[in-house]
Design a protein that fits this description.
By secondary structure, the chain is mainly beta.
Length: 289
C-alpha cells in the first residue's frame, strides 16, 4: 500500500509581490510525504519505507525533447524539428537535455524571478510544527540550469532556471522516527533571493493530515487496513486475485479527519516485485503499475 500526499503551490514571494510580474510567472514549492506499507494478513500491516521530499522550482522551459542534439541545426529541416535549434544548455540538465547534448528546440521559456540558482547552501527550513525534525536545516541539492535563447535571432540572452530538491529517506525500522519528524502543519523555508542571494525569500508549504498504516497507538487500533479481500484466503502473506471474476476488496481507516473528499483520490494497482523469488521480503517497483 502506497500512501502519498503532495502539495504543490504556485507562490509569489512577498519580497517581489509589489513589483510588476508577468501573469504567467510562477514559483512553486512542493512537499511530499510518502510511505510504503505491506499487509501480510488481515491484522498484519508493516511499514516498509518512507520518504519526505521538498522541491522548489522557479522558471520553466518547454522544448521538443526529440529535437535535443549534440549539434546545432539551422531552421528548415524537413522534420518535426524544422524550426531549428533555438536554445543552448550551458549548465545543468533540462527536459532530457544535458551539456553533452546541449542544443534544444525551445517552445516556451519563463526565467527565474524570485529564487537565485546555485546557492543551495543558503536554503534553510526556518520554522515548522513541533517535531523532532532539525531546524534550521539545509541539505538541499542544486538542480538548476542555464539556457541561452534564441539562437535563431540576433537577440540571444542568458536565462536562469532554478531547481532545488531535498530528500529524507526512512527505512523499515524508522516508522516512529518518520512520524515524529514529519507532522502535519506549515513548513517555512528560506531561499536565496534572485540577484541578492544573501537576502532571504520566504516560502511556505503545508503537510496535511493523511491516512497511515494500521497500528496500535495509545492502546487503540487505528489506520488503514484491508479487512476482506476475496473472502480472506491468505496464504503466506498473499491473497489471490482473479483476472476473470470481479475481485471484492474491503477496507477501513479512511476517516474524515485525514481524508479530503474534494481532492484526495484512492487508487488500486498491481505492481511488479523487485525479487519475485522472495516475495515476502521483496519490495515492489513503484513505477510498475
Amino acid at each position: 500500500m502506497f500512501r502519498i500526499k503532495t502539495l504543490a503551490l504556485p507562490v509569489i514571494s512577498t519580497l517581489v509581490a509589489a513589483t510588476a510580474l508577468p501573469a504567467s510567472a510562477q514559483v512553486s514549492l512542493s512537499l511530499s510525504s510518502d510511505k510504503l506499507y505491506r499487509q501480510l494478513s488481515k491484522d498484519n500491516v508493516s511499514f516498509r519505507s518512507g520518504k519526505f521530499s521538498a522541491i522548489a522550482a522557479d522558471g520553466q522551459v518547454a522544448s521538443i525533447e526529440v529535437c535535443n542534439d549534440q549539434n546545432y541545426y539551422p531552421p528548415g529541416l524537413p522534420t518535426i524539428c524544422n524550426a531549428g535549434t533555438t536554445g543552448y544548455l550551458s549548465a545543468g540538465n533540462l527536459n532530457g537535455a544535458t551539456v553533452q547534448r546541449p542544443y534544444l528546440l525551445i517552445t516556451a521559456l519563463r526565467p527565474a524571478i524570485v529564487i537565485e540558482p546555485e546557492e543551495a547552501d543558503k536554503i534553510r527550513l526556518v520554522a515548522a510544527p513541533a517535531s523532532t525534525l532539525p531546524r534550521p536545516a539545509g541539505g538541499f541539492t542544486d538542480d538548476s540550469a542555464t539556457v541561452f535563447y534564441n539562437l535563431t535571432t540576433g537577440s540571444i540572452a542568458e536565462y536562469k532556471i532554478t531547481r532545488y530538491f531535498n530528500v529524507r529517506n526512512y527505512n523499515a525500522k524508522q516508522r516512529s522516527k518518520f512520524e515524529s519528524d514529519i507532522v502535519p502543519g506549515a513548513y517555512h523555508y528560506s531561499f536565496p533571493r534572485l540577484g541578492s542571494p544573501q537576502v532571504p525569500a520566504g516560502i511556505t508549504a503545508v503537510i496535511f493530515p493523511m491516512p497511515e498504516g494500521y497500528a496500535t497507538i495509545n492502546k487503540q487500533k487505528v489506520g488503514v487496513r484491508f479487512t476482506k479481500v476475496n473472502n480472506n484466503k491468505w496464504k503466506k502473506g498473499f491473497v489471490q486475485l482473479s483476472y476473470i471474476r470481479p475481485n471484492r476488496i474491503e477496507w477501513t481507516g479512511l476517516t474524515p479527519n485525514v481524508v479530503f473528499g474534494a481532492s484526495d483520490r484512492l487508487y488500486f494497482s498491481i505492481r511488479a516485485m523487485r525479487n519475485p523469488n522472495d516475495p515476502v521480503k521483496s519490495d515492489v517497483l513503484p513505477d510498475s503499475a
